[in-house]
Amino acid sequence: MFFKRTPSITINELSSKLAEKPQILDVREPNEFSAGHIPGARNIPLGKVSSYTPKGKTYIICQSGMRSKRAAKLLLSKGYDVVNVRGGMSSWTGQTRGGKL
């Protein structure tokens, strides 16, 4: 378990799953989230992730992929089914809600 790899997907792979309405957890700060996020994503900042309980498979995203990887490792260690989204919102070219990204 100590050296278990964090499951991850690319932005393009996440984009292809949007029709299935996957659970997306955005771990950026609220001001970053309100500036533009993936429709349907839930915002729980990284600092509060330890008290979050995902329900089913959850895709975790941030701005670049670093915070989401940390969040994914934390939630994986608690036994949750989570997947890190590599590249983050800085690589996202799909539809967003909120401000301009």
Automatic annotation (TrEMBL):
SMART domains in UniProt: RHOD
Quote any Pfam family the record assigns: Rhodanese
Q: Which residues form a coiled coil?
A: none
Q: The Rhodanese domain covers which part of the protein?
A: 18-97
Reading the lineage from the top rank, the first entry is Bacteria
Xref: InterPro entries: GlpE_sulfurtransferase, Rhodanese-like_dom, Rhodanese-like_dom_sf, Thiosulphate_STrfase_CS
Q: What is this protein called?
A: Rhodanese-like domain-containing protein
